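Raw record, unedited: DNA-binding transcriptional regulator, XRE-family HTH domain
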Amino acid sequence: MKTELLVKFGERIKVLRKDKNWSQEELADETGFHRTYIGMIERGERNPSLININVFAEVFKISISELLKFD
């Protein structure tokens, strides 16, 4: 299901953010996205574009394929 994929992606972003000890606000500063957008991503409420997925990968200093490893 589409929503399940969005939830898994959001959980992955949250784990990576917490691994860096960043708040949503700090991740927003690093990515250039609004804090509310970060929260919506983490809750699986938004479907990020490929460009935004790449921004997350660059900020976390990992490849897109690594970013999309959910298990």
